[in-house]
């Protein structure tokens, strides 16, 4: 075998193993504000509080299931800003003991459409607990009035390469 063939074979192995831990997914979700604190005037409106909801995962390998989530969020108008963190109860998907598997994500709005009331959001997976410790990845979605019709992302789990 030539050196060129060995290099090409090594490149194929490395590129294949580099994506082995990637788990693409699509999702649908619905949520509602739980406790919140509203402040406002004619110029600037702010809201901070807890959002709770349900998230339906559909992974690229055919695996699917539902989890509940809670999010701590902050919204401000003028200029628009929406940021927060989400904790997913992944033990519901895994069938493990309550509280044993959780996934953590931060999120930030990247666009607001006043005509439709929609908000474009990007999330970054920042770890978790149990099976999801050290997880990474991203998600993108559009939220309209407490509903996410279509979202997609990639979950990267350590130790699965």
Q: What can you tell me about this protein's structure?
A:
The two termini are 27 Å apart. Mean pLDDT is 84; it is low at 1-20. The longest helix is centred in the N-terminal third of the chain and has 16 residues, at 3-18. This protein has helices at residues 3-18, 91-94, and strands at residues 22-40, 45-59, 64-76, 81-88, 102-113, 118-129, 136-144, 147-156. An eight-stranded antiparallel barrel has the order 1-2-3-4-5-6-7-8. 20% of the residues are buried. Helices cover 12% and strands 61% of the residues. The protein has a single domain (21-156), classed as SO1590-like (AOC barrel-like).
With helices defined by DSSP (H or I, 4 residues minimum), what is the helix count? 2
Largest sheet: 8 strands, antiparallel, barrel
Total number of distinct structural domains: 1
Taking Cα atoms only, what radius of gyration do you get, to the nearest Å? 19 Å
The CATH class name reads Mainly Beta
- CATH homologous superfamily heading: SO1590-like
Low-confidence stretches: 1-20
What number is the mean pLDDT? 84
Beta-strand portion reads over 45%
Helix content: 10-25%
């Amino acid at each position: 075998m030539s050196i060129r063939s060995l290099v090409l074979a090594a490149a194929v192995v490395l590129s294949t193993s580099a994506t082995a831990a990637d788990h693409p997914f699509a999702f649908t979700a619905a949520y509602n504000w739980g406790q919140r604190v509203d402040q406002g005037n004619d110029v600037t409106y702010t809201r901070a509080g807890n959002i709770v909801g349900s998230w339906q995962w559909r992974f690229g390998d055919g695996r699917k299931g539902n989890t509940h989530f809670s999010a701590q969020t902050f919204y401000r108008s003028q200029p628009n800003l929406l940021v927060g963190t989400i904790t997913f109860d992944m033990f519901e998907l895994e069938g493990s003991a309550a509280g044993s598997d959780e996934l953590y994500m931060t999120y930030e709005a990247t666009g607001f459409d006043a005509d439709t009331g929609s908000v474009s959001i990007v999330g970054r997976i920042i770890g978790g607990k149990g099976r999801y410790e050290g997880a990474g990845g991203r998600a993108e979605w559009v939220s309209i009035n407490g509903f996410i019709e279509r979202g997609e992302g990639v979950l990267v789990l350590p130790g699965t390469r």
